[in-house]
Amino acid sequence: MSEEDRKRILVVGATGFVGPALVDEFSRAGYHVICGVRNLESAAQQLDFPHVEFLQVDLNEDLNPNTWLDRLREHKIDGVVNNVGIANAFGGQSMENVNVNAPLALFEAVSFYCQENLEAGRQPQNVSVIQISTTGVDWPDCDAYRYPKSKKLIDESLLETSGLNFIIVRPNIIYEPGRGHLILEQIVRLPVLTYIGSTKIQPIHCRELAIGVVRLMQNPYKASCSILLATGPEVLSWKEVFLKVSEALGLKHGIFFRVPLLMGQLFTNCIQYLPERLLHRLGILSKMDNDTIEMMTKGSTGDNSEWLEKTSLQPMYIFDTYRNLSSSPETYEQYIQSIRDTKA
Ligand SMILES: NC(=O)c1ccc[n+]([C@@H]2O[C@H](COP(=O)([O-])OP(=O)(O)OC[C@H]3O[C@@H](n4cnc5c(N)ncnc54)[C@H](OP(=O)(O)O)[C@@H]3O)[C@@H](O)[C@H]2O)c1
User: Fold this and answer.
1) Which residue blocks in 84-205 are alpha helix, DSSP H?
2) What is the domain count for the chain?
3) Quick check: is 240 in a domain?
């Protein structure tokens, strides 16, 4: 495929955990990916994929729709994924700006850009927007937590926007071997496995999410102006998640120890001062504040049938993921490829 034939997709928030999987999957699917990132240097290291270029953005500051409009015009964007979302205010960012005000400015710019192209008889005139939200928006007490509250606000704004072709994707807890915020294959090797409460979650594999988002972008009218719950195929407690991973890896699991929320928060706060290498061995790769820990243990579940129907995907099970991983890297890669290859 020639460079001119590739559709041009803007992925805002292309670094971090989910971002690189999205960029990789869009690139594999034949898109040219414009990666909206804060730090060009570290992005170039994280996003070593073909057919990508970098665009410096900062959602803490890019609150003017005209800033985004110039970028859409300059890069001739055909589709937008907003993957940015901060769950805490580490680094002095405004959650309202990053999660709500800047995405609003971006979406307003997309509307204007489509209208402008329509009037000028230019393409593209139907730019689809995919907003990565969270299942936390469905909590009855969602407004008590700043993160899901902010995601709810931006989702509601999108739902009220007319003339924009959008899809809101709400993922549950996202996991992937070797990457992410929690490295399950490391956690299950610990002699003592702590968990808080027994509420239920439906973790989704990061690749299922990323491949699904690409498929939605390829066929946006199938799910236009809708909300899709990107939940995994099984309803599990955290303890059941750990049991499945250790069973799949053929490991004898450590002692389970249920801790009260306060103790979990205290423990997590303390270990954040450990060096990164040690944290990796404990399976924890990101900073968490008390709210994040509480939210992770609140639980949420939801029906994934519409997600699977609109993406025509096979769901990825935790056991299959880690069983394939334990066989060999090639077997695991073949498993991921089989998901990419699932036909409608
Ligand atoms: N992980 C989960 O289990 C989970 C579950 C449900 C929903 N989600 C949603 O999924 C999306 C991705 O989550 P993730 O786990 O991949 O998060 P992440 O690893 O923290 O990545 C967040 C992304 O947002 C970018 N970002 C943060 N502040 C920014 C700013 N001011 N300007 C531009 N970019 C900024 C980060 O860039 P830097 O690399 O520069 O920091 C990174 O690319 C988020 O919208 C999140 O709310 C995640």
Assistant:
1) 95-96, 102-120, 146-160, 184-187
2) 1
3) no
- Ligand 1 centroid to Cα of residue 86, in Å, is 6
Is the residue at 196 inside a domain?
no
The Å distance, Cα 119 to ligand 1 centre, comes to 35
Residues having CB closer than 6 A to ligand 1 are: 13-19, 38-39, 57-60, 83-86, 93, 98, 132, 134, 171, 173-174, 181
* Angstrom distances, CA of residue 206 to CA of 6, 212, 260, 315: 24, 10, 29, 11
Between the CA of 235 and the centroid of ligand 1 the distance, in Å, is: 24
> CA 71, 28, 319, 213 torsion: positive or negative?
positive
Which residue's alpha carbon is at the smallest distance from atom 19 of ligand 1?
16
Domain that holds residue 138: 3-179+203-232+302-317+327-339
Residue 84 alpha carbon to ligand 1 centre in Å? 4
Residue 66 lies in a domain: yes
Could you tell me the sign of the dihedral formed by the alpha carbons of 202, 205, 206, 210, in that order? negative
Residue 181 backbone phi and psi in degrees, to 5: -90, -30
Would you say residue 237 lies in a domain? no
Measured from the Cα of 91, ligand 1's closest atom is: 28
Distance CA 114, CA 135 (A): 30
The CATH number linked to 147 is: 3.40.50.720
Q: How far is the CA of 301 from the centre of ligand 1 (A)?
A: 21
d(C-alpha 335, C-alpha 329), whole Å: 10
Cα 92 from chain centroid (whole Å): 22
Write out the chain's pLDDT in tens, 344 residues. 888 889 999 999 999 999 999 999 999 999 999 999 999 999 999 999 999 999 999 999 999 999 999 999 999 999 999 999 999 877 889 999 999 999 999 999 999 999 999 999 999 999 999 999 999 999 999 999 999 999 999 999 999 988 899 999 999 999 999 999 889 999 999 999 988 888 999 999 999 999 999 999 999 988 888 999 999 999 999 999 999 999 999 999 889 989 888 888 888 888 878 887 888 788 777 777 888 888 888 889 999 999 999 999 999 999 999 999 999 999 999 999 999 999 87
